[in-house]
Amino acid sequence: MKTLGKREANKLGRRQAIVEIAALSFMEHGYAGTSMSAIATELGGSKSTLWGYFPSKEDLFAAVMDDATAEFRAQLDDVLAHKGELADTVLAFCRKFITKVTSPDGCGLYRLVAAESGRFPEVGRIFSSRGREPVGRLLAHYFQSQIDAGTMRPSDPVRAAHMVLSLCLGDLHQRTLLLGFRASPQDIVAEAEAVTADFLRAYASSESAG
C-alpha cells in the first residue's frame, strides 16, 4: 500500500507538472501555437507519456482551465456561504470577482480565449463550461436561497446571476482588458458597489431594501 501511495503521488505530481507547463505555453504562445510535442519535450518525456495523461490538446486545455479556476470557485463559494445580509454578500462577491477578472492573469486568459475561440470553438466552450457557467450556478443557487428567504423578490435566479456577472464584466474590466488600464483597489470597490446597487434596485425585496 505504501508503494502504491508513492506511485499515485508521483502520477499526480507528473500531471500537475504537465498542467503548469501547458498553462505557461498557452498564455505565451496561444492555443494554436501550443503543441503536445513541445510540451512533451519541455517535460522531458515522450508524447506517448503525455497522451497517457491527456489524450488531446483540448483535454489538456480543459485541465489548465480547471486548475486555474478551481480555487477561485471555492473562494466564491465561501463568500456566498457566509450568513450575512444580501447586500453585503453580493458586494463581497462582486469585489472578489472583479478583482480576479481585472488581474493580469484574468485579463491574459480573456485575451487568449477572445483571440483563439474564432478558429478553435472548443476554447470558448471549455472557458465557458469551466469558468462562467459554474460561477453562474453558484450565484444562482445563492439567489434562490434569498428568494426563498424573502430578501429577494420572486424572480429567475439564473437571470439575476447573469445580470450580476455581466455588470462585473463591464466598464472597468473592458478598460483593463482592452486599454491596459491598471485597476486600483479603490476602482474595484467603486465598481463592485455600483454593481451591487444596480442589483439591489432590480431584485431586493422591499423589506431587504429598507
TrEMBL record:
This is TetR/AcrR family transcriptional regulator. Residues 35-54 bind DNA. Residues 12-72 form the HTH tetR-type domain. Pfam families: TetR_C_7, TetR_N. PROSITE patterns: HTH_TETR_2. SUPFAM superfamilies: Homeodomain-like, Tetracyclin repressor-like, C-terminal domain. Keywords: DNA-binding. PANTHER family: HTH-TYPE TRANSCRIPTIONAL REGULATOR RUTR (PTHR30055), NALC (PTHR30055:SF119). InterPro entries: Homeodomain-like_sf, HTH-type_TetR-like_transc_reg, HTH_TetR, Tet_transcr_reg_TetR-rel_C_sf, TetR_C_Proteobacteria. Gene3D superfamilies: Homeodomain-like, Tetracycline Repressor, domain 2. The keyword DNA-binding applies. It comes from Novosphingobium aquae.
